[in-house]
Amino acid sequence: MSPFWDCIGMRETVMKEGYAEIEIDITSNLHQRRGTVHGGVLASLIDASIGSAVRSTLQGDQASATVEMKINYFRPAYAERLTAKAKLNHRGKTLAVGTAEIIDPNGKVVAAGSATYMILSPQAASKRENK
After folding, report:
1. CATH code of the domain occupying 3-129
2. What are phi and psi for residue 47, nearest 5 degrees?
3. Which of 6, 20, 21, 33 could form a disulfide with 53 if both were Cys (CB 3.0 to 4.6 A apart)?
4. Residue 126 scores a pLDDT above 90
5. Phi/psi at 75 (5° precision)
6. pLDDT of 103 higher than 70
7. How many angstroms separate the Cα of 97 from the Cα of each of 56, 102, 125?
8. Where are the domains of the chain?
9. Whole-angstrom Cα distance, residue 131 to residue 29?
10. Distance (Å, rounded) from C-alpha 52 to C-alpha 86?
11. How many CA atoms lie within 13 A of 25 on its CB side?
12. Which residues pair with 120 in a beta bridge?
């Protein structure tokens, strides 16, 4: 998948047309100084889960890139495992928009967010690399 995913321990557990789930086991190195899960980890879960939902719709050599993301933090996360559940709300030719919730083992939503992704065709990606 991604070296960053491996570094923090994210794993894709579900990916189907326009939907994805990502899990992460929380270790002490993912905490901030007050002992809760760092907000950057939660943001990464939002981005990764919506990105996986987008990826489930890509064809051939298409790729995608995050162009905008918003997250709301509802409560501190103390859990040993978190799950992000994402779905696409819109999938157009060049843009996809999705939403995700991060849920703790007790079923409580600790954060939610939305993100917009640009769909990159192989030709567009090639032009960007050559600039």
Report:
1. 3.10.129.10
2. -60, -45
3. 20
4. no
5. -155, 155
6. yes
7. 13, 17, 20
8. 3-129
9. 38
10. 8
11. 4
12. 63
